[in-house]
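Request: How about a record?
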Amino acid sequence: MARKARKSSSSSFRLNAPTQMVFAISLILAVLGLIGLFVPGVPVLGAYYFWCMVAAYVVLAAGNTMKGL
C-alpha cells in the first residue's frame, strides 16, 4: 500500500503581501516612533515612541498574516 504524502506544517501557514495602505500606516507609525526617539522637542511622541514602533510592527504583521487586510 502506498503512503499518502503528508503536508508539511509550514504549508498551512501562508503569508500574504500587505496592501499598500497597511504598509503606509505601519511606515507612518514607525517614522513617528523614530521622531519621538531622536527629536527631543516633541514631548508627546517622546513619551510613546516605543508603543508607536510596536504598533507599526503589529500592523505590518497583521497585514502579512491576514488575507485581504
In short: Helices lie at 20-38, 43-65. The longest helix spans residues 43-65. The chain is about 60% helix and 0% strand. The radius of gyration is 19 Å.
